[in-house]
Write a structure and sequence with these properties.
With about 260 residues, the chain is of the alpha/beta class. The protein contains seven helices and eleven strands. The N and C termini lie far apart (about 55 Å).
Length: about 260
């Protein structure tokens, strides 16, 4: 069975974000780009399953800017076999629906039996693309998976549903599963793996290759983001002075009247 992994390249969380002068987006010149951390759990689980099965390939699917291939190479260095990259200018400005439409078409052409993805991309926090991919493929999907067992034509997965409660779901394959923390510990790419990754096949597909010209690009986006602004600056802290009993009394009053948390 070939296993697909949806991979996204995102800004490092330590990157200082700067808004464009026209407030239409962010400055990308000095951003450090990394593999979306939740997608690393997806890559690791795909590699583990591939090793257990002893056959098939792990195929990386990624859509984004020209540097997207760098994130794919990281996954290839971890052990994935090949990558399908959608980095044509025709994809620029696509929303989650457009990106998912293209990714679904790419998956259809690769004989994939199961797709892993991160539960969310840490840049836009949309929680949408993998679910739309599943809908486009007409496959079942389960989100926030933190335990996985493959059982023939099905998978038994576990997911937290809040309040300390977890549920188990048996899902028929093929399916799309989004991965959460606790599922595994992603491996590091070894030096030999990094060298081998440079020779592993990477396929580039344009919108016309996939027949999705009417779904992708800024002109076809159903959701358009504009007027980017930075969050308001955090107000300066306040130091309470005087006797301890007076400080406690003042603090309680401030929590009640200003912070309004009690």
């Amino acid at each position: 069975m070939n296993i697909g992994v949806l991979l996204k390249q995102v800004p490092d969380t330590e990157t200082k974000v700067r808004i464009n002068g026209d407030a239409s987006g962010i400055e990308e010149g000095d951003i450090k780009w990394i593999v979306n951390p939740y997608d690393e759990f997806a890559v690791e689980e795909a590699l583990k399953l591939n090793a257990a099965l002893g056959e098939g390939e792990v195929v990386i699917f990624s859509l984004g800017r020209p540097k997207t291939v760098e994130a794919a190479r990281t996954a290839l260095a971890m052990g994935a076999h090949r990558a399908v990259i959608l980095d044509d200018d025709g994809y620029l400005g696509s929303d989650a629906y457009g990106a998912a439409s293209a990714l679904a078409k790419a998956i259809e052409g690769e004989d994939i039996g199961l797709v892993f993805a991160g539960k969310v991309a840490i840049d836009d926090q949309n929680f949408q693309a993998p679910q739309i991919v599943a809908a486009k493929l007409e496959w079942p999907h389960v989100t926030n998976v933190n335990a996985f067992d493959h059982e023939g034509d099905t998978a038994l997965v576990k997911r937290d549903v809040g309040g300390g409660t977890a549920e188990q779901v048996r899902v028929a394959l093929p399916a799309v599963l989004t991965c959460d923390k606790g599922l595994n510990t992603p491996r590091y790419a070894s030096l030999p793996g990094i060298m081998k990754a440079k020779r592993k096949p990477v396929k580039n597909l344009s919108p016309s290759d996939l027949g999705v010209e009417d779904d992708v690009g800024a002109d076809n986006a159903k959701v358009v983001l504009s007027d980017y602004t930075m969050p308001p600056a955090r107000p300066a802290g306040r130091i309470l002075e005087g006797e301890l009993a007076d400080q406690i009394k003042e603090l309680v009053g401030l929590l009640r009247t200003e912070a309004k948390v009690i």
